[in-house]
Amino acid sequence: MIKAIFFDIDGTLVSFRTHGIPSSARQALDELRGKGIRLFIASGRHPLDIFPVLDFPFDGYVTLNGGYCLAGRDEVIFRRGIASADIERMIRWQQGPEPFACVLAGEKGMCINFVNERVTRVRKMVETENLAVVVPFDEWSAAARRGVLQLIAFFSPDEEPRLMREVFPDCRAMRWSPLFADVVPAGVSKAEGIDRMLARFGIGLDEAMAFGDGGNDIPMLRHVGTSVAMGNAAPEVKQAADYVTTSVDDHGIARALRHFGLIA
Fold it and tell me: In CATH, what class is 84-185?
């Protein structure tokens, strides 16, 4: 019996084409809520990038790829920051000949060192507000550096192995776009965040379902009792799921929930 469902946002619950939740998915959420099923977000986004986009009352939010988890909108049940040594290495790297645009996501806000074409393309793709203030990293205080929960690093997949080895040895990279990677503390993932959330609500892992479409969703799709990949997901994401539905724009959420008998 499914008692909790976790939804990724971009490309899963929210369309890249319309930048909104399809009406069929919204109706499904209402029906699930009426049956007493707990509904959660599991996203790489910062809470500041989630709350303006989703007006549905979710029971909790696994944000920053599991590094910062909230029951409701206010109760912090888990947080894990990036080691200060990795942040210092990254700041030194930015002062060299190969700087890359990077967002530092803290608990209360975000900072970016500069905006380039990659950053602009991603902002248009997800239609997010410009919430990351442009501040050179050398102006960040030591206290702020210690409070970094996630980095949004705008480097390519080809550059990733070297940077993760030389700059971020205590972190892991999670990616759903070739334009950037989410850099999180080692051990952090949506699966970890789901475990924290289920423990908070007293729900078993076999009673949980998850929907996703990106590479950063693979850990949670492999982890929960029942997993669904969207039709617009990459092949490796589909292989990690128990079931593949149609795309977000082709009512994929509602179709999968009907397949599993969770909505009429």
Answer: alpha beta
